């Protein structure tokens, strides 16, 4: 194996561990184990540190314009190829929970691609998107710019559940 392949594999593992440990933290907190939840949250953030260093090793973070182009390609692949295939297989296996998760992700990824296209157009015009607020649906991962909707267009959750995302 080459160093690049090793770094790619390590990045995938560290990224997955980060998200998994964050989910474990939330579960431990819900069960009342606050110190264990904090430990898992710290481990999640540590894995993120590792993943970011590996992205640097891979030279995978470029100028914002190039990052947006890559993000558009990735999101587009997910909503046009990957998730439709996953949904078809899950339907054939009668796995309704997976069908719903894949469908929500697919629809949200299409919205993400559109937002990245809007951001790329702004960059090419020499400016940022503006000072609008950005909101995240905690159920399906939909992102809205400007204001939260009354209801999420992807999953139907009430807009008051959307979270404002700040730096």
TrEMBL record:
Q: Which SUPFAM superfamilies does the record cross-reference, listed alphabetically?
A: Ferritin-like, Rubredoxin-like
Annotated Pfam families:
Rubrerythrin, RUBY_RBDX
Task: Decide whether keyword Acetylation is in the record.
Answer: no
Q: So which domain of life are we looking at?
A: Archaea
Q: Does the keyword Transmembrane helix apply?
A: no
Could you tell me the keywords of this UniProt record? Electron transport, Transport
Q: Which PROSITE patterns match?
A: FERRITIN_LIKE (PS50905)
Q: What Gene3D superfamilies does the record tag this protein with? A: 1.20.1260.10, 2.20.28.10
In this chain the Ferritin-like diiron domain maps to 1-127
- Signal sequence annotation: none
A single Gene Ontology molecular function, please?
metal ion binding
Name assigned to this protein: Rubrerythrin
Look up and give the organism this protein is from.
Methanoregula boonei (strain DSM 21154 / JCM 14090 / 6A8)
């Amino acid at each position: 194996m080459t160093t690049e392949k090793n770094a790619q594999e390590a990045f995938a593992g560290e990224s997955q561990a980060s998200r998994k440990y964050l989910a474990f933290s939330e579960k431990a907190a819900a069960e009342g184990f606050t110190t264990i939840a904090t430990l898992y949250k710290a481990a999640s953030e540590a894995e993120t540190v590792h993943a970011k260093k590996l992205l640097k090793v891979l030279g995978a973070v470029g100028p914002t314009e190039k990052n947006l182009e890559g993000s558009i390609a990735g999101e587009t692949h997910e909503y046009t190829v990957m998730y439709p295939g996953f949904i078809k297989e899950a339907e054939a296996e009668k796995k309704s929970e997976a069908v719903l998760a894949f469908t929500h992700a697919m629809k949200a990824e299409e919205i993400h691609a559109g937002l990245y296209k809007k951001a790329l157009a702004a960059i090419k015009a020499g400016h940022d998107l503006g000072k609008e607020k950005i909101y995240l649906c905690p159920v399906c991962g939909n992102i809205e710019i400007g204001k939260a909707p009354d209801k999420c267009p992807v999953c139907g959750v009430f807009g008051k559940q959307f979270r404002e995302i700040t730096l």
